[in-house]
Each structure stands twice: as structure tokens, then as C-alpha cells.
Amino acid sequence: MTGELTKAHCSFIKQIGKIEETGNNPFHNSSYATLEGVLSVVNPVLAANGLSVNQTYDHIEGRTILKTHLRHVSGEEIVSSALYPETSGKNKLHDWGGNCTYMRRYTLLAILGICAGIEDTDGNHAQEIKETRNRNWRDVPETVMPRPESFSKSDTPKQEQQAIPKPADKQEVSLMRKQLLDIYQNDRKQFDALEKAYKGHFEVKGKFSDHIQEPKHLEFIRRWVEAYTKKI
After folding, report:
1. Separation in Å, CA 62 to CA 15, 65, 69, 81, 84
2. Residue 15 CA: distances (Å) to CA of 10, 11, 40, 46, 67
3. Which range is most confident: 45-54, 59-68, 99-108, 163-172?
4. Dihedrals φ, ψ of 46, to 5°?
5. If you average pLDDT over every residue of the chain, what do you get?
6. Domains of the chain, residue spans
7. Are strands 77-83 and 51-60 parallel, antiparallel or unpaired?
8. pLDDT band per the 50, 70, 90 thresholds, residue 21
9. Where is pLDDT greater, at 215 or 97?
10. What pLDDT does 149 receive?
């Protein structure tokens, strides 16, 4: 039975205020409520009603599960479980960390029965700052930049070159945009350098993120980031 918890939750719903959209998604020109912003609003109201919420991790058959616990001082509890999506990126730890804040925010809002300004990512799971990095990034020397010749143009006839290229895997594009958002939020200098290199190589004049559609786009970004990281 969760009678006491339900009563307290009803009071919580009546008292909860607006959750400000303080986060910025540069890829979709939209704002959203960060995990920190949500917690700063809900925690005081939860505590005032004898409620608390915390989130823990579990594993089943090698898959990570995020458990969200809504507890009342009476001992009553509601638990919600969410299975982490499988990742196909090269840096699985980075992908896992990116999923953490994304899933924590959504499952927290779900168990509390409230809504906030979550960014419209069109399936591209944008990620907010996971930690503050107190590092001064350096510019990558030209010697480690991906060379144009490594992305040589095809010698096939012009008609074939104009054929519609094979699109990249949607999940890989989603993960890449999430990684780029992480770079943007943690180190603007690195992001600006990458954007400049990408636009120069592919002769892009529009939005950086909107152009990422083909496998060669993903490969260029991966190689650039790997080269940059080796110099840190």
C-alpha cells in the first residue's frame, strides 16, 4: 500500500513550481531543463512533504538498469526501472556517461509525474555537462590534423559521384551529436577548432550538426577528436 506516499505526492504536485529551461542545445537552437535544474526545484518540495528520490544502478545479463526510488518517511516506496540502450560508438564509456544524465532526468520527471522543458533532439540524445573539466586545451598542430588526401575523392565517372551517398547509421549519428554537445559544453575552444576544420574540409556553410549525415562525416570527426586527445 502507498496511501501515505500518495497523499504526500499529491501535496508535492500542488506545491511544485516552474522548472526553468536553463540548458542550451546549440544543435537545435532550443533550451531545456538540465538535471541540475530539475533537482534544485524538486528536492526542497519533496523534503517538505516527507519524500525523497534517489537513483541507483543495477545489471541484468550485462545490461545496465537505472532504478529510480521515490520514498516516503512512512517507509512506503515506488521503484521504476529503465534499461540503458546499447551503444555502438567507439568510446563506450563516454556513451554510457552521456546516457546517465539523459536517462536520470527523464526517469526522474516520469516517477514524479511532472514535465519540464526537455530539449527536442529528434532522437539525438543531447547531453548536458557531466563534470567541470579544469583543463586548458591546446590547439592541435597541423601535423596531427586529418589530411585531405586521407579522404581522397573517387575516380569514378561524374555520374556515379553524383549518386545519393549511403546515409550513416542513425544511432551513430545520434551518439556523435551527443559527443559534440559534450565537447561544446565542456571546451568551446576545442569545439570551435573542430567545427572550423570540418566546415573547411567538407565546404559546409550551414549548421555543423545538420551536415553530419554520411559515414565519412563521422569518420572525419572521430579521427580529428582522437588526434586532438592524443596531444592533451
Report:
1. 40, 10, 22, 15, 11
2. 9, 6, 14, 9, 25
3. 45-54
4. -60, -50
5. 76
6. 3-112, 142-230
7. unpaired
8. low
9. 215
10. 52
Question: How many Cα atoms sit within 13 Å of 161 on the Cβ side?
Answer: 7
Phi/psi of residue 164, each to 5°? -65, 120
pLDDT band for position 138 (cuts 50, 70, 90): very low
- For the chain, the maximum distance between any two Cα atoms, rounded to a whole number of angstroms, is 75
Per the CB < 8 A criterion, the answer to whether 130 and 101 are in contact is yes
pLDDT the model gives residue 56: 94
* CA dist., res. 155 & res. 120, Å (int): 40
Query: 171 Cβ partners below 8 Å, 6+ apart?
Result: 88
| pLDDT above 70: residue 70 | yes
Amino acid at 113: G
> For residue 36, what are the contacts with CB-CB under 8 A and spacing of at least 6?
128
Q: Which long-range contacts (CB under 8 A, 24 or more apart) does 16-19 make?
A: 16/41, 16/42, 16/45, 16/112, 16/114, 17/41, 17/45, 19/114, 19/116, 19/117
Phi-psi region of 61 (alpha: psi -120 to 50; beta: other; left: phi over 0): left
Q: Quickly list DSSP for 209-220.
A: GGG--SHHHHHH
Cell numbers 592541435 correspond to what residue? 140
Q: What is the pLDDT of residue 43?
A: 93
Interaxial angle between packed helices 35-48 and 3-15, expressed in degrees from 0 to 180 and rounded to the nearest 10: 120
Q: Is the dihedral of CA 93, 27, 104, 65 positive or negative?
A: negative
For 13, the 3-state DSSP assignment is helix
